[in-house]
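User: quick one, fold this
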Amino acid sequence: MSIISQVILKADDELRYPSSGELQGIESFLTTGAQRIRIAETLADNEKKIVDQASKELFRQHPEYRSAGGNASGTREYNQCLRDYSWYLRLVTYGILAGDKEPIEKIGLVGVKEMYNSLDVPVPGMVDAIVALKEAAIALLSTSDAQETAPYFDYMIQSLS
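Assistant:
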């Protein structure tokens, strides 16, 4: 949920107008809108490059995943890994656009550890994959855009760790 929605819902629950501090938060959110859109566009436009680079790094760190019997040994399994990497990158863009980590939590992290454990997917490997995604994405961004983006990846990394 965006900061605007949060402020409105909180004020309405308390039967009051938004406070000046809340309005300043909205103003700050609006003034960073162009940056958040630029970051989301950069990540979306470079999705394949980011995912390819991250997967190469992950499988360099964990060659056993691609070996016979590994979680990404077959073409189908490998493509499912890449699909998940794209999904996590997309989740980051949702958080950036909303200016909030809540979309990442609600859409992508609820129950994900349990799902991976039930599928015998090594959760530490998924953490390493998200770290690799972060590094590949950050490398494409300016310093200020990278500073804005990093906490969303870090939130996912901490949630899965």
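User: anything notable?
Assistant: The longest helix spans residues 75-98.
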